[in-house]
Design brief:
The complex is a heterodimer of chains A (125) and B (107). Chain A is an all-beta fold. Chain A has no helices and eleven strands. In chain A, the strands form two sheets. In chain A, strands 2, 4, 5, 6, 9, 10 and 11 form a seven-stranded mixed beta sheet that branches. With 107 residues, chain B is mostly beta strands. In chain B, strands 2-10-9-4-5-6 form a six-stranded mixed beta sheet, with no helix packed on it. In chain B, strands 1-3-8-7 form a four-stranded antiparallel beta sheet, with no helix packed on it. In chain B, a hairpin with a 6-residue loop joins strand 4 and strand 5. The chains are: A mainly beta (125), B mainly beta (107). At the A-B interface, strand 5, strand 9 and strand 10 of A face strand 4, strand 5 and strand 9 of B.
Chain lengths: 125, 107
C-alpha cells in the first residue's frame, strides 16, 4: 500500500512563506489525485487543495492566490507552497491520496483513502 | 460552495449502544459522500465512501446511508475503539468540503 510522509512544517512569522513536502512510497496510478487537508488546533478538518497527475489544481477559497499545490512525479513528491501566511493558517497539514473511479463525464472521487501523519505549521510573531 | 452540517457535534454513549450521526448537505450531492474516523493525534481514516460502501478492513458494525442531501453514519454496537471524532466530506464538487465533525465520547 502507498505510504505518505509529510515534512517541511515549522514556526513562521505572519507574511512569511513555507513549502511542505509529501513523499510517497510510489507514484503510480494509485496516487493520480493527491490532496492537502489541514486541521487547526482543536478544530475540524478543512480541505485545502487537490492536484491530478497532469497538474490540474483546485483550491479552497481561504488559500486561493496564496497557496500553490504541485507535484514532481520523478521524485514521487507532492508539494504545498504557502505564501503570505496568516495566523489562521496555523494547523496540522495532512497530505492524502484520493481514491477515484471512471465516470461517464469524467472521474468521480470516492474519498481520501491514504493519509500521511501530518506536519505542523505554526504562524506566529 | 456546498455546506455540510453534521449533528450532533458531541455525543455521549456507552459500549454496546447504537449510534447515529447525521450529515446534511446544502444542495444535492447524489451519493458522493465519505465518512472518516479520527482519533486524537492521528490522521483521519476513511470508513465509508459513496455514502454506503464500507472501506476495506472497516468493521461491519459501521454502515452509511442516504443520498441527495441527507446522510447518516450508524455504528450498530459501539466498541471501546470507536470513541473518536467522525467527519463527513462531500466529493461532488469543488471545494471538497468537510462537515464540522462529531465527537463520540464515553458516557
Amino acid at each position: 500500500e502507498v505510504q505518505l510522509v509529510e515534512s517541511g512544517g515549522g514556526l513562521i512569522q505572519p507574511g512569511g512563506s513555507l513549502r511542505l513536502s509529501c513523499a510517497a512510497s510510489e507514484f503510480t496510478g494509485r496516487v493520480d489525485y493527491m490532496s492537502w487537508v489541514r486541521q487547526a488546533p482543536g478544530k475540524g478538518l478543512e480541505w485545502v487543495s487537490v492536484t491530478d497527475i497532469r497538474g490540474t489544481t483546485n483550491y479552497a477559497d481561504s488559500v486561493k492566490g496564496r497557496f500553490t499545490i504541485s507535484r514532481d512525479n520523478s521524485k514521487n513528491t507532492l508539494y504545498l507552497e504557502m505564501n503570505n501566511l496568516r495566523v489562521e493558517d496555523t494547523a496540522v497539514y495532512f497530505c492524502a491520496a484520493v481514491d477515484y473511479g471512471p465516470g461517464s463525464s469524467g472521474p468521480f472521487f470516492n474519498g481520501l483513502d491514504v493519509w500521511g501523519q501530518g506536519t505542523t505549521v505554526t504562524v506566529s510573531s | 460552495d456546498i455546506q455540510l452540517t453534521q449533528s450532533p457535534s458531541f455525543l455521549s454513549a456507552s459500549v454496546g449502544d447504537r449510534v447515529t450521526i447525521t450529515c446534511r448537505a446544502s444542495q444535492g450531492i447524489s451519493s458522493y459522500l465519505a465518512w472518516y474516523q479520527q482519533k486524537p493525534g492521528k490522521a483521519p481514516e476513511l470508513l465509508i465512501y459513496a455514502a454506503s460502501t464500507l472501506q476495506s478492513g472497516v468493521p461491519s458494525r459501521f454502515s452509511g446511508s442516504g443520498s441527495g442531501t441527507a446522510f447518516t453514519l450508524t455504528i450498530k454496537s459501539l466498541q471501546p475503539e470507536d470513541f473518536a471524532s467522525y467527519y463527513c466530506q462531500q466529493l461532488n464538487s469543488y471545494p471538497l468540503t468537510f462537515g464540522g465533525g462529531t465527537k463520540v465520547e464515553i458516557e
